[in-house]
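WARN retry 2 of 3 for item q-0093 after timeout on previous attempt; input resubmitted unchanged.
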Amino acid sequence: IIKVKPMSKQKVSSGAPWESIVGYCRAVRTGPHIAVSGTAPVSDDGKVVGVGDPYRQAKRCIEIIAAALKQSGAGLDDVVRTRMYVTDISHWEAVGKAHGEAFREIQPATTLVEVTALIDPDMLVEIEADAFVG
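OK item q-0093 returned
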């Protein structure tokens, strides 16, 4: 019989009101793996940032992701995958520009898809990320 020691799980909360309602946290680190939940462009007080501006909203999502990674002992350079959800595919260039500014040298695997809606109609983009700390 081989006994496997359970891996510890570190949870990072951003304090977003949806965390307690839905039952999730901003990020979870298990060993070297970090999963950052879908991240919306909100300010510290929960208001949507950059209403009508997909570039600014994407920048804000990445700022929140970077903060969650930092709390998990990682950084943007540890990101291996991102997923971007936009409510209008014509915003791909603005969102892609913000993503490129953060990840141009890192070059994680990525996906960008259009979705019908996000949790607030003023939200134009939501981004999630996976990181690996080697």
